Amino acid sequence: xxRDQPRPPVVGDPSGPTYPFPIRLSGPxxxxxxxxxxxxxxxxxxIPVTGLSVGGHEDVESGIYYGWAGLDVSSDGDRNSESVPxxxxxxxxxxxxxxxxxxxxxxxxxxxSVEVHILHKFDKDFYGxxxxxxILGFIRPEYDYVSKESLVEDIRTDIEVxxxxxxxxxxxKAKDTSYLLDFRDSAHENQN
Length: 192
What we know:
The protein is of the alpha+beta class. It has helices at 148-166, 169-172, and strands spanning 23-28, 45-47, 63-71, 93-102, 113-118, 130-141. It is built from 2 helices and 6 strands; from the N terminus they run ββββββαα. The radius of gyration is 16 Å and the shape is globular. It starts with 22 loop residues before the first strand and ends in a 20-residue tail after the last helix.
């Protein structure tokens, strides 16, 4: 896709994710650069840079992706209790997400980052909570921008493309993948 071409309203094969997807990525939510909410009005939940091995796909292209995010929090952002008995361990909630893997050339980052925008409004932060990602497809490459406004406009388009792409049956059913709500063990981190 060229930057000069119109953006497609949906992306990904209609029959469902194709190789290398789905990709699994997991880690605790950490502090990012502090720009998502404050500067852009688009909050992000970031996972550690060590997660960039992306399930054995170290060469994953920088760009914008979409899929599902499982978080060990309630819908308002409250952390779930650690006292839940193991037999009742299915906790957390799954939301659609759009994410950036890359260098953020507009900000001239010196390190690659993983920044996830969950398509849900939370009332509070949830740093330290485990987030499991199921990446189902690629939206577009990473671009540099001439203005913050053009960056925000493209991010808002990415959000809508992700939302529409995930509404298709082959993608919607992926949100029921047990991996997304398995917070008991980090042994499943970053696999495909």
